[in-house]
Amino acid sequence: DVMSLLDGVISTLRAEPLRSADQVMYETLCGPDGHFRQGNDRCKPSTLSAAVQFLDNAKYLSGATAQSAWDAPPGGIAHRFPEIFVIHADSLRTTRANTLQKHGFVFHDLQADLCIYPDA
Predict the structure, then answer these.
(1) Taking phi first (over 0 means left), then psi (-120 to 50 degrees means alpha), and beta for anything else, what does residue 31 get?
(2) What is the pLDDT of residue 38?
(3) Taking a C-beta distance cutoff of 8 angstroms, is the pair 12, 19 a contact?
(4) What does the pLDDT read at residue 36?
(5) Number of H helices, E strands in the chain
(6) Do 13 and 21 form a contact (C-beta atoms < 8 A)?
(7) Which residues are bridge partners to 38 per DSSP?
(8) CA dihedral (16, 22, 28, 33) positive or negative
(9) Taking the chain (120 residues) in consecutive chunks of 10 residues, what is each chunk's mean pLDDT?
(10) Directed axis angle between helix 2-15 and helix 21-30, to 10°?
(11) CA–CA gap between residue 26 and residue 52 (Å, rounded)
(12) The model's pTM
């Protein structure tokens, strides 16, 4: 099931903290050699009854596909890529959290452990 797959991803990232989360997620969903891949944008792991559709890398930043964007000056991502979305749930790596915070994309108060909903 999905939760077992995600548990495997989290366990791998904790055991191997230098590995890319994108790479571990891909290997978990598509298989180490990509043998569960279906076309260019989805995978169907043998343990799931549904396929997993990948987000369009042109619209959604990830660490693996947009390193130059992450290296932009503070606040620079929104100016350089006004149409881009940032979706990230990487609580295992403080370096990524610091990078997100540098660009104003952190919406979680770590001390209060609460979500922050800024005015739009």
Answers:
(1) left
(2) 92
(3) yes
(4) 93
(5) 5, 7
(6) yes
(7) 42
(8) negative
(9) 82 85 85 90 86 77 64 75 63 60 69 66
(10) 140
(11) 10
(12) 0.54
